[in-house]
Amino acid sequence: MILLAAALAAAPVAEVRVAFDRQGETAVATRGLADVAAGRAVTADDPARVASVSKLVVAIAVLRLVEAGTLDLDADVSDRLGWRLRNPAFPDAPISLRQLLSHTSSLTDAVDYVLPLDAEPRVVLGDAKAWDADHAPGTYFRYTNFNFPVIAAVMERATGERFDQLMARLVLEAFKLEACFNWDACKADAAARAVVLYADGKPVKDDNQAKKPACSVTPARDGSCDLSKWRAGANGAIFSPQGGLRISARGLARVGRMLLNGGTLDGVRVLTPASVALLSAPAWTYDGTNGDPGSDTDTGAVKAALHCRYGLATMILATPRDGCGDDPFGDGRQRWGHAGDAYGLQSGLWIDPARGTGVAYFATDVPVEPGKRSAFTPTEERLARGR
Using an 8 Å Cβ cutoff, are 217 and 184 in contact? Predict the structure, then answer.
């Protein structure tokens, strides 16, 4: 009994896994509770904050705007922002959407990227600590969440639309998804079914108490939450473009099916095949000196690189290079997609184009343990492989 209790205590609170191919779902598995206090079992349709998998969904919207001629991947984003975005150490080097999406912009997360409603990235990014003073834009990979609030600001300035509503129009409605960024654009019944995120058994995010949050963004510094004061591009951080997508595992599987099908889903074209190919192509490949590849240093686990190849908001797995730990599947096959890790949740959306298969998953209150074969945790390795 003691061993059983210990095993249960070490298990995630909830797990959902949806396997799919080009035609549809092939297997669905759920376990645990979406809300412990309510005793509500998790389902494949319950929306969860999927952390950095959000970045891939944002990239889909960016490429839709590129296809429409609204945005240019290689233009200086300062032209859209209406203010000069520069690394103070490299004032003559412009910064592009391609660099922001591929984490080669020279921005860092040394300053807080979770900004209140009345903050402005322009002011925050005027701090030299926000920048890598040793590497010019385009020369070095450093995984940086702050890239995505800047991307959101560019998208807002280019369209005049609020980021969460723009994401709904460009992507989420096209997938017929009950999904949103930071709850405001979701219906109340979706927010009521939120998957609560836990860390060490305690709720840390989206404990919605079966209702829609009164304030879906980080309030202003005076505590107010008046979204009518939104101004295009003034604060692209408030809807958490770096990780705030609330979507079900079943919804993520629909995104994966679109990518597997070269940009179409159920007969509706979302992206061109050329844009899908651009997403999946490495924009950066680790050569041993040209970036910070990351590793599981928090647990003293496998000292292997988590990032060895990165596209436009996509992780490309199973890099054939010594020291790379970017293969949670453990079979050496090249897949692409993105992982997520925040507030005790871990998630993933991965597709294998050669086999025409994929998997979407998340787990909450994931034990912090070293991976057995990669820089991913054992929970991610198990959910990736379906074992």
Answer: yes
